[in-house]
């Protein structure tokens, strides 16, 4: 068993409703942390009181710091352990999460690691769509990236960091909207390892309405493009495999509209039969999706019918993702370099 010590940081702004489940999951760990710090970041509800009732350390900045990374950095000087685990205030960890992630840091080259994130709730169409996205991404994309030693991101809702490496870097990066991706890429550019631990489970509360989904996806997509602008030239020479994933993601964004309108082109432009066109298009979609979802359902011991029932909702999320991906591409990769925009600078939560 790894003997490294660990502090948990939980940044929280108006999280009185979700925070108790998060803290209970941390305190129930089979390998308990040495310290738990909640950063009550300018909350106007009872977040601080709720945290204090659980006996954890509560830090209150004099004003709202404006982003998760800044709140985490506020707590970093209070950490003196080997590792730091950053947990979102709406995320619940499996009881053995710390136990499963800690051992990867026995390798001194590892700078950051995170586990497998799934959705806590599937009540609304948007949550159901996200559950499908997560099952696919964390059981298809992430394992392949890990096999190639080049994960795209260690999820910020439950990432573990080597404290000395994190502090030497200057703390949690505040220069982009997605600090988790920024640090994951930066570590690999510096020759360190980022690790995906597939059996370490966490459950995140995802946007339950379209309003909050739009805010979250815009922040994620803008942050991704900010990281592309910041890191891609160096990735091409120093970490070509990671650069390959990034380029593939950009190509998917660019080509997705063409794939979506292909049935229209064939039926309206080339007079192909509607039934046959839609059949092969839907067949292609299912062929790319169903096997990975069935595998994920088996790994997570989920009822297959439950997973398949949620599948249609993913297309609602895909439409939102695509709109904001294109918006982010135009704003962050074209308008910002041309000094026509400052890009996304304000951090907005997804719930």
For the structure shown, list the relevant keywords.
351 residues; alpha/beta; eight-stranded mixed beta sheet; 53% helix; 15% strand; globular
Strand order of the largest sheet: 3-2-1-4-7-6-8-5
The N- to C-terminal Cα distance equals: 37 Å
Overall mean pLDDT score? Answer: 95
**Main sheet summary:** 8 strands, mixed
Based on Cα principal axes, name the global outline: globular
Helix vs. strand class: alpha/beta
Total beta-strand segments: 8
User: What value does the Rg take, in angstroms?
Assistant: 21 Å
Low-confidence region ranges: none
The number of helical segments is 12
The percent range for helix content is 40-55%
Strand content: 5-15%
Order of helices and strands: EHEHEHEEHEHEHHEHHHHH
What does this structure look like?
It is a single chain. This protein is α/β, with parallel strands linked by helices and 351 residues long. The chain has twelve helices and eight strands. It has an eight-stranded mixed sheet with strand order 3-2-1-4-7-6-8-5, sandwiched between helices. Helix 5 packs across helix 10 (274-300) and helix 9 (240-269) packs antiparallel against helix 10 (274-300). The radius of gyration is 21 Å and the shape is globular. The model has no long low-confidence stretch (mean pLDDT 95).
